[in-house]
Amino acid sequence: MDYAALLTRAREAALPALDRGRPAGYIPALACADPRSFGMALATVDGEVHGVGDWRKPFSIQSISKLFALALALHHGGPSLWRRVNREPSGNPFNSLIQLEAEQGVPRNPFINAGALVVTDALLSLTGDAGGSVLDFLRAESGSPGIAIDGDVAASEAEHGHRNAALAHFMASFGNLENPVEEVLAHYFAHCSISLDCHDLALAGTFLARHGIRADGSRLLGRSDAKRVNAVLLTCGTYDAAGDFAYRVGLPGKSGVGGGILAIVPGRGAVCAWSPGLDAIGNSVGALAALEDFTERSDWSVF
Amino acid sequence: MDYAALLTRAREAALPALDRGRPAGYIPALACADPRSFGMALATVDGEVHGVGDWRKPFSIQSISKLFALALALHHGGPSLWRRVNREPSGNPFNSLIQLEAEQGVPRNPFINAGALVVTDALLSLTGDAGGSVLDFLRAESGSPGIAIDGDVAASEAEHGHRNAALAHFMASFGNLENPVEEVLAHYFAHCSISLDCHDLALAGTFLARHGIRADGSRLLGRSDAKRVNAVLLTCGTYDAAGDFAYRVGLPGKSGVGGGILAIVPGRGAVCAWSPGLDAIGNSVGALAALEDFTERSDWSVF
Amino acid sequence: MDYAALLTRAREAALPALDRGRPAGYIPALACADPRSFGMALATVDGEVHGVGDWRKPFSIQSISKLFALALALHHGGPSLWRRVNREPSGNPFNSLIQLEAEQGVPRNPFINAGALVVTDALLSLTGDAGGSVLDFLRAESGSPGIAIDGDVAASEAEHGHRNAALAHFMASFGNLENPVEEVLAHYFAHCSISLDCHDLALAGTFLARHGIRADGSRLLGRSDAKRVNAVLLTCGTYDAAGDFAYRVGLPGKSGVGGGILAIVPGRGAVCAWSPGLDAIGNSVGALAALEDFTERSDWSVF
Amino acid sequence: MDYAALLTRAREAALPALDRGRPAGYIPALACADPRSFGMALATVDGEVHGVGDWRKPFSIQSISKLFALALALHHGGPSLWRRVNREPSGNPFNSLIQLEAEQGVPRNPFINAGALVVTDALLSLTGDAGGSVLDFLRAESGSPGIAIDGDVAASEAEHGHRNAALAHFMASFGNLENPVEEVLAHYFAHCSISLDCHDLALAGTFLARHGIRADGSRLLGRSDAKRVNAVLLTCGTYDAAGDFAYRVGLPGKSGVGGGILAIVPGRGAVCAWSPGLDAIGNSVGALAALEDFTERSDWSVF
């Protein structure tokens, strides 16, 4: 398959959409991103990488880090994690408190903020350093040792983090946090503030396309667990738009308010598209348009 | 692949689970079903059919008919249907009124009761006979001309249908019904009361595995639309357990309180499992266990 | 006390507010009301009546009839009614379905639409004619035998009554209606469509100021029950603005989207103000301003 | 009126109910209270005090302090407080997060926990010491200089205060707190942990019966403001049971999970009943029964 041509086409499909999005405004480091930026990279299960546009320009990983935190927590701790977080789509905005109350402090899934805080808490208990574990994994899989946490972003997140603090205290009131609220938040903000590029993220996602095998051939997740993480990505990975994303793109995927979207094609590879302008739900307009075009033209779809 | 062996194994995996389920109790015709019944059938895209257990024993299609109503409404009316019904998973019980109010009478997806009423209303406007259209389609695809609406079930549904009447009036108050409430309800109860067996349902589902092509080679849905219906099935097809179903089974599927579950394997075929005992959410315990075993052992998974 | 002067002052306080309200728009008979109309009447426990402005111009009673339906249902059936309807304020819009679902078909209080439907159903069972019972009571207490149901309004209510039909079916699904949905709705629309004037309503309300004694000296409610109905009026009588009404006016009161508000002063009398323009919550802007001025200047307050 | 006899009767009415309640269990200092304790005191507007049972036994004021924090915040800061907190009854449990989200961080009323945190924050900004202001006021009005904050209770509240921390951070995320979350919580826990007896609370409440005049003759609130605080008490003072409390007792009142209830009779006086056993909603079973009996026998009711 001519991947380069498909990526070029996908970029062309995305360009007219870029003006319709707006960068996330809640922290300065994200608000000043150039909405005309667009990058896209594809990594095959064999480690082949292709890219287009700003694919080597670093951006903030934001919620996409939740995927890696989940995989690492499952790797270190096993399925008991599912007693502390469900895996059902949330019918509400990604940081809503409503369902959390109705379900007694057990978040709907690991990709809403509440769920990711529980996963971070578990990973912290298991490894002693949740933020560092995610960082090390991303460096290793991407072969980019320079990937780092952006301290300015992390500081801004903490400063504007009252909602996440509310979520963490709320779950603590139900007994669903093991570590002090402040530590869990610090590790959560750390791994959400990692800065990396499309090339790095596409490579880092290939372990899910290889059914759980890392770049170095070691196994991170069992075959069934890798399938299951893909299933959770498909049903819950894009906030309150998971149904629409599945409808339009048809792949397991995870988005972040930094503008990135990472999609997995089981058995084939991983694709990462990035553009800072977001739609009302918080997904990148450009990345979504590019992925929709890519899956429409290629045979990379699960359905 | 030795389908017969896989089905036999799946049945064995399901048998110990049967006692944990309870038949739907809200109408007499369903309540008196034997919870020890179990059947399973597999139909390939080539029309090959295999079965095990009570696979030729008829049962009530219930909500699985919503899938066929949706496909037919899209066939006759096109994508404008999506202006009247969303395609996001519902974070609430399948017949909840809460999100319907929050979203101004537009149901979350076509598989909750409210959404299926809108689809039925659309199909009624397009064809003049929503119940008959679904019935004709099922007869044709399965090659079983004897498939019929169970009048007792339909009458019981109508008698106990106050919640569906509430939903229909509620959507009518937002202007989201075109036909009189009573007519929409009658057609809805009709297609939900169709009686058929695992063999019939597996065959009737193969058009989605063939990317939209019917048994006679004609096209019901375009390739993209067929992919998209599979995506909606995966994210919304099993009430408030869609995430768990994707996690455990990993296939697009639709369940009904009659105890049936129909799952689609794009490019390969369709599988229908049936056992009347339901879990708390309304999905068949036995059918779920059988499908989980089947996908675990075969390579029939989308992830 | 110089009641005439107080009423004149209250009218002056209301006049500048009239332009801020808008008549109810959901049925034609209400939408065409003149928003500049304003009337107010006061009836003492001794039967003395004073009025100002359009106090003899008839208007649609709308939800104020719920108060009389409640009193009559308690008179005929006693306190067992409270097993079918609660008496807590509703934190949601007056016709919301949300809390009704959470509380298993038992409405929050007798003055939201759902609760009034249950009260109407009970009154229908007890008397055989819920609409007629309310009408007879109003005629007797006001001494105005010409009070009648406005057939046009009742027909319009029925035509636009999908939300009330949804509520009724919904409660029927929980077993909380004794009569057929259609009959309950017809009686409900009948007593809400009664047309009468400020003079009539003020007189009809005095039984609550007389601790349960009707105009002819007979007892409708026991002293404790009359106190209790006043309590329910204060906490629940003005939709989602009961707290604000208590804060500003400080009296038990019931409003209707016809623009009327009836307020009770235990031991003293009843006041009815009317002006068709409503605020966003559905209470008359002019009537509210007039009652606030009246209670500020007089010593007619419960606090 | 023979107040002593009325109190004795009320105590007799309460005694059989004591066994039906259970002391609050969330902090040790409350859980070990003797459920058979019962005290009641009445203070007239003239400063006359009567008591019965354990009326001089100190207990934890808990949420009743919210009433004094509100009065002091209105005294020091005026009506602008109402831009930061509404005055509508809450249709949800007293510390629910749901409506807070729906209403953008503005609590429903000053007596749910979220609202009391906002009031405490305002009082802290206005006086520099919210906890101390409430304490000083209670000492002065009751003539009991020994009233003090119970440090053990305050420490326990802080230790088990994740839900209140969640509420505070949540409101801070909407910009509805002026002081650091930790400081607001500390002052809130301080005034909720004041220990005093029925005698003290009844006297401290009389300023509302005197239409805003303190024990020393100075004015805390204007006449209208005192009326309005009484109105908010009646509609919102007893968690999700305000409607039922109004129905049964018919007085403005405020309850606390320490087992106390303070009720106001405008123009007459204040009554405080106390017994540690609570009903499911968090109101004292014994205090409620005593107040119901008292208002039934006396003419102390607003309706």
TrEMBL record, chains A, B, C, D:
EC number: 3.5.1.2
InterPro entries: Beta-lactam/transpept-like, Glutaminase
Binding locations of substrate: 63, 113, 157, 164, 188, 239, 257
SUPFAM superfamilies listed in its UniProt record: beta-lactamase/transpeptidase-like
Entries under Pfam families matching the protein: Glutaminase
Organism: Streptomyces tardus
Record GO biological process: glutamate biosynthetic process; L-glutamine catabolic process
Keywords associated with the record: Acetylation, Hydrolase
Source superkingdom: Bacteria
Protein name according to UniProt: Glutaminase
Homology family: Belongs to the glutaminase family.
Catalytic reaction annotation: L-glutamine + H2O = L-glutamate + NH4(+)
Quaternary structure (record): Homotetramer.
Stored HAMAP family: Glutaminase
Recorded GO MF terms: glutaminase activity
